[in-house]
Every structure is written in structure tokens, then in C-alpha cells.
Design brief:
- With about 325 residues, this protein is an alpha/beta fold.
- The strands form 7 sheets. It has a 7-stranded mixed beta sheet with strand order 5-4-1-6-11-8-12, sandwiched between helices. A 4-stranded parallel beta sheet has the order 14-17-20-23, with no helix packed on it.
- It is elongated and about 65 Å long.
- The protein starts with a strand and ends with a strand.
- The protein binds guanosine-5'-diphosphate-alpha-D-mannose and magnesium ion.
- The site of magnesium ion has 4 residues, from loops.
């Protein structure tokens, strides 16, 4: 697999100023580990991370992947080459059909099924779809009855399409299409390669999962949303092991069952924590209330503070 993780994460600023989007914590785990889990479950253990922005911080956390049961190699573009350009840049590592992931989506998709379907159809490319209400910030994919892609339209205006199946940022690609991507220049799947595959009449198919969870975590609202979905247990593929680390809690503090509290937190008397995630070493003063929120490690919440629907870090 190749994971595209070279974007700057601009829409998630300021969260991504010091923490690159691929390792932004979700329920206190670096985000990319969820994608690595999805891949490993499907038997894909040979993974290339395609980086550009703050690559060292990502390498530092994930290393060679052996802690997570996979083998990770890295490619680092001197400047961002675009999504397809990044795939081309990793050409030396690619010999077989490859699963390509946008590095900012959480899904519990059955990837094995997608790969099987891709192989059965002898497709040049297979793209996974997700239904959304408003497709304008995604790539819209119109399909024929037999699943062939008819049209791919990135970030459409509402008047340009009536379709609401979008590109879920998961592909299986046959290496032959590397030849269609210009070397050494910025080129994208969305504006370049996919429309080109259609023009060439290549076998470009869509896969519509029966019922999978899917979200792009690239905005603060959706970053918060994925936490609520996981806490509630809506993401079948993600099982939370232990919601409680070892931390100090006063007897007169209230912590609900859904919340996750990491190691070394302190929760003072009269504090309330509801449907929230506290990272390591968070300090909650007396009578503070934290509800539907995510608090990054080593943050102090002052006494009596009301923190609702927020993402807070130092
Ligand atoms: N290595 C590398 N180099 N990675 C890149 C580059 C690059 O030049 N540009 C973007 N990426 C990575 C980003 O880090 C991100 O993980 C992924 O590619 C997609 O980029 P985004 O910037 O998040 O794109 P988007 O969310 O607006 O749209 C894309 O994702 C949607 C689904 O979430 C498109 O693929 C849409 O068609 C799709 O619907
Ligand atoms: Mg995105």
C-alpha cells in the first residue's frame, strides 16, 4: 500500500502547526495507526508512506512499522508532487497492484473485498465510493450500472452534478497506469489521472461498500465528529481497548462511561467529564466541565471552565 500523507493539513490548523495531520491523535492514538490496522486486517503489510510536510515527526512515531506488525518505508518529496505525482515518485517501490489511501480518512471498510473485486474485473483502477449529503468538497464519481466509472468531477459546483457518491480516497491501482503519469511534475489523481483513464477507455471501476463507516478528518468539525462516532461505538472496525489509563481522580469528580482518560491525568473535585477524550497528563481543575470535547496531552483546564464541543491543546 501507499499512503498519501504529504499534505499540509491547512484546514486543521492550528492543530497541524506542530503535529502533522497523519499523526494527529484520534482517541489518543496517532491517526495513521487506524489506517495501518485496516491494511493489516486485509493482509497488506508492505506499506510506503508518501510524505512531504514535517516527515521526521512522522518517522519518529511510526519507525519501521515493526511495533505495529507491518513494514513501513518512506518517500519524501522535495516539494509536494500532487496525489498522482506522489504515487509516481514512489514508483521504485511499486511492482504489484497497490492500495492507495488518502492519508486523512477513517474507515472500517472491508479492503480484502475491494482487492478481490479489482482482481476479478482485471481493472486498471478501482475507486471506493462513499455516499455524502453535500459532495462539493469532494470528488464526485458517477457510475454505470455495471460499476464502471462514467465521470469523475473534483470539487463540483452544485449545478454540475446531481450525484452524491464521492471518492472515498481509497484506490487499488494496477502499476501499468504509472506510465500515464508524467514524471517530475505536479500531477493529481483527481484532476489529471482519473479523467485521463476515462478518456483512454481504461477499465476504471467503482466499489460501493455495503455499509462502511467513512470520514475525512481534515477539518476541525470532522476531527471532533470522528471522536464522537468512535466513543459511541459507531465505527465497527475500531474497538477501544481501555478507556481509562492510570490517573488521579478526586472522589467528587464525575466522569461518564464514554469518556477516555489517558495516563497521568489529574481530575480535581467537582469536575465533570462527559463524552470527551483527555490526552496524557491533562490537568482538570476544580468544578471545570468538559463535554463533547477533545483535550490534547499536557493541557491544563482552569477551575470552573466550561469546555463544550471544543478541541483544546496547549
Ligand atoms: N505525498 C503527497 N504529496 N501527499 C499529498 C499531496 C502531495 O503533493 N497532496 C495531497 N496529499 C495527501 C494529503 O496529505 C491527504 O492525505 C490526501 O493526499 C488528500 O489530500 P486532501 O488535501 O486532504 O484532499 P481533499 O480532502 O480536499 O480531497 C481528496 O479527498 C477526498 C476524500 O476525502 C480528493 O481525493 C477527493 O476526490 C476526495 O473525495
Ligand atoms: Mg482530505
Amino acid at each position: 500500500a501507499l499512503i498519501l500523507a504529504g499534505g499540509k493539513g491547512t484546514r486543521l490548523r492550528p492543530l497541524t502547526v506542530y503535529t502533522p495531520k497523519p499523526v494527529v491523535p484520534i482517541c489518543n492514538r496517532p491517526f495513521l495507526l487506524y489506517q495501518i490496522d485496516t491494511l493489516r486486517r486485509a493482509g497488506v503489510t508492505d506499506i510506503t508512506l508518501s510524505l512531504s510536510y514535517q516527515p521526521h515527526k512522522i518517522e519518529q512515531q511510526l519507525g519501521d512499522g515493526s511495533d505495529f506488525g507491518v513494514k513501513i518505508t518512506y518517500t519524501v518529496e522535495p516539494q509536494p508532487m500532487g496525489t498522482a505525482g506522489a504515487y509516481k515518485f514512489a514508483e521504485d517501490f511499486i511492482r504489484e497492484p497497490t492500495v492507495v489511501f488518502n492519508g486523512d480518512i477513517v474507515t472500517d471498510l472491508d479492503l480484502k473485498k475491494v482487492v478481490r473485486e479489482h482482481n476479478e474485473r482485471k481493472a486498471a483502477a478501482t475507486i471506493v465510493l462513499a455516499p455524502v449529503e453535500n459532495p462539493s468538497s469532494y470528488g464526485v464519481v458517477e457510475t454505470e450500472r455495471d460499476g464502471r466509472v462514467r465521470r469523475f468531477l473534483e470539487k463540483p459546483k452544485p449545478e454540475d452534478t446531481s450525484c452524491c457518491n464521492i471518492n472515498a480516497g481509497t484506490y487499488v491501482l494496477d502499476p501499468k497506469i504509472l506510465d500515464y503519469i508524467p514524471a517530475g511534475e505536479n500531477y493529481s489523481f483527481e484532476y489529471g489521472l482519473f479523467p485521463d483513464l476515462l478518456k483512454r477507455g481504461e477499465k476504471f471501476y467503482a466499489h460501493v461498500p455495503a455499509d462502511a463507516y467513512w470520514i475525512d478528518i481534515g477539518t476541525p468539525a470532522r476531527y471532533l465528529q470522528v471522536h464522537h462516532d468512535i466513543l459511541r461505538g459507531d465505527v465497527r472496525g475500531i474497538k477501544l481497548k481501555d478507556r481509562r489509563g492510570s490517573f488521579d481522580s478526586a472522589t467528587h469528580a464525575e466522569i461518564d462511561e464514554l469518556s477516555i482518560i489517558a495516563d497521568d491525568c489529574t481530575v480535581k473535585p467537582g469536575a465533570q467529564i462527559i463524552n470527551s477524550v483527555l490526552g496524557e497528563g491533562v490537568h482538570v481543575e476544580e468544578k471545570a466541565r468538559i463535554e463533547n470535547s477533545v483535550v490534547w496531552p499536557h493541557t491544563r483546564i482552569g477551575s470552573g471552565a466550561q469546555v463544550v464541543g471544543a478541541v483544546i491543546g496547549r
